[in-house]
Amino acid sequence: MDILVVGSVALDSIQTPSGKREEVLGGSATYFSIAASFFNKVDIIATVGEDFPKNYITLFKNRKIGTSGLEICKGKTFRWKGVYSDDLNTAHTIYTHLNVFKDFKPEVPRNLRNSEFIFLANIDPDLQYDVLRQVKKPRLVACDSMNYWIEHKRDALERLLDKVDILLLNDAEARQFSGESNIMKAAKLIVSRGPKAVVIKRGEHGVLCFSKDSYFAAPAYPLGSVFDPTGAGDTFAGGMMGFLSRAKKINDSSIRKGIIYGSIMASFAVEDFSVNKLLEISLNDIAGRFNHFKRITRF
Amino acid sequence: MDILVVGSVALDSIQTPSGKREEVLGGSATYFSIAASFFNKVDIIATVGEDFPKNYITLFKNRKIGTSGLEICKGKTFRWKGVYSDDLNTAHTIYTHLNVFKDFKPEVPRNLRNSEFIFLANIDPDLQYDVLRQVKKPRLVACDSMNYWIEHKRDALERLLDKVDILLLNDAEARQFSGESNIMKAAKLIVSRGPKAVVIKRGEHGVLCFSKDSYFAAPAYPLGSVFDPTGAGDTFAGGMMGFLSRAKKINDSSIRKGIIYGSIMASFAVEDFSVNKLLEISLNDIAGRFNHFKRITRF
């Protein structure tokens, strides 16, 4: 039941109302894999430069996150710098240096081609498709995307969606992809294009999940303070896929629980910069928030 | 267990992306009382002008909504005209003609002073206070307010809050009242100022409820189309108070159910202009959505 993630491993410089950090560990594959590692074995397909700090590789290894697919290339690691608005709802990008990520051609090592749970983090849909081509018989494929690909690589994205079980988008992306402003109509249209389910992430407003014959709505886990929202969506996906990789069956019921575990992992992630909080918590902390989540939503 | 509402009865002219209506029945006390009338006997304290259509009075009477406190004054009825944005999130006011509402001094008729469930719809907090002074021993007082009173009549609002059990606000009002941008912190501060609970209405994002020792989060009931959001908040309050007036106990559990019934009543209200949809539905329709709400939130 191994989990495979393709995405970015990056060095982030971040400023939020709570403070700032320079060149800390970031990237979609990083957040995803650390969240998923609480539940199962995860392997990363990504690329970093020769300047990537060795202690971060050690960090992955200590969490039993497989790095055989993490290529170390000549050049520098992907870097992003962003400043968040006071309400944390928007990130203003100061710079994006793709560096070695610019020529990223994901190669799935032979021993990982039997991976059953695949997460295609937000990269060029042609690369996402290429990864799927390399894996043999995935049991569950989840995929993230963004406004840029919806606008500029629509055809590639549509081709991919036919092979995706769960598509993750935020509100605005779902509206953009579907051309529908009503989120129910938007979701229905997306599900008609291939994915079995679409999970719509709404940040502090929670998550909606639509499939052909089910609908699920969950609020966000309540937090008294948010330090840094970077990586929340990928952490969510890591919690969800991690839980699903341990579930007996992939069905409406386990997807709902997966969404709650995803929300909980994201709620931890945003409580500190980078992946710091995720490295501090235990399975007990996760179980505690799961039980609390039940209590605060019961009626 | 009678319910009493003080607020406005108005003639609304409304334009939304779905169409427009001229001088249709509106006002906070109208939406509240029609929603609450599915659960219990309601009485209105409000004022209208001599031009108020008789068939609207008949409409109230047919639903056993008491109109002994609905004063018909010399002059014209309160009128509001608004145009909604394409996403229905903001209403641009074309005009507000207070007319007879300008000199509204709520008088609670003697036979209604024993009312146990009081809803103070959004009017001047001094008038809301005055109504409370006239009722003898209310079992539950809920209160709505708005940015204008928070800014201009802060002291009057604070004096009132001491006598309020449930305060209803939207996100922005909760942040404005508390000066806190984090909604959890905002809610905690509000609850420390008097009300036993604060219910934060977030429109399509659902409802949060905070009290000293409990927290509840509910998504909104999913709708494929929204015709007219006018009155959604007051309809919500009507459903909530209606349900609570029938509950054996007022406690965390019944307030949660009340919030769900409120959300359901609001979900009907926005599916047509004015109160049209509320006049069409049955208790069966409400029970159907309640069961559906359970199914779509269970995990």
Outline the fold blueprint.
The structure is a homodimer of 299-residue chains.
Chain A: E1 3-6, E2 10-16, E3 19-26, H1 28-36, E4 42-49, H2 54-62, E5 65-73, E6 79-84, E7 91-97, E8 117-120, H3 125-134, E9 140-144, H4 147-152, H5 154-161, E10 166-170, H6 171-178, H7 183-191, E11 197-201, E12 207-211, E13 214-218, H8 232-246, H9 252-269, H10 276-280, H11 283-297
Helix pairs in contact in A: 1-8, 3-5, 6-7, 8-9, 9-11
Average the pLDDT over all residues of chain A and give the rounded result.
96
- The run of helices and strands of chain A is EEEHEHEEEEHEHHEHHEEEHHHH
Q: Kindly report how far apart the N and C termini of chain A lie.
A: 35 Å
**Percentage of residues in strands of chain A:** 25-35%
Number of strands of chain A: 13
Radius of gyration of chain A: 18 Å
Q: How many distinct helices of chain A?
A: 11
